[in-house]
Amino acid sequence: MTTLSSHVLDLELGTPAGGVRVALFRGEQFVADAETSANGRIADLGGTLSAGTYRLEFHLAAYLSAHDRAAPFLQRVSIEFLLDGSQAHYHVPLLVTPYACTSYRGS
Predict the structure, then answer these.
(1) What is the Cα–Cα distance from 59 to 40, expressed in whole angstroms?
(2) How far apart are CA 97 and CA 107, in angstroms?
(3) Can you tell me the distance from the alpha carbon of 73 to that of 75, in angstroms, rounded to the nearest whole number?
(4) pLDDT, tens digit, 9 for 90 and up, residues 89-103
(5) 48 and 28 in contact (C-beta within 8 Å)?
(6) Pairing mode, if any, of strands 21-26 and 29-35?
(7) 71 — phi, psi (to 5°)?
(8) How many domains does the chain have?
(9) 3-state SS class at 17
(10) Which of 5, 7, 107, 8 is nearest to 49 (CA)?
(11) pTM for this structure?
């Protein structure tokens, strides 16, 4: 069994992205959702997860709108990934601007 966390950083402002809604799905089935804290983190999303393919959806346009910023390009960012059960914890960070994003397997 595995746990999952995430961290969103707003590269345009150079700050953590607090208040980003993040939803977790396994296939098309909704598992859980949460909002990033003021430091841009979600420490535990979905509790204990079994091995499988999951998808995180980061609601970027809503975050930008809530901070009186335009969402000219990215509306929602989806990252599909495999939890193979070999690790006790996975961390999926997202670095964003209104026009670009990147992610990686964090630690």
Answers:
(1) 13
(2) 22
(3) 6
(4) 999 999 999 999 999
(5) no
(6) antiparallel
(7) -115, 75
(8) 1
(9) coil
(10) 5
(11) 0.95
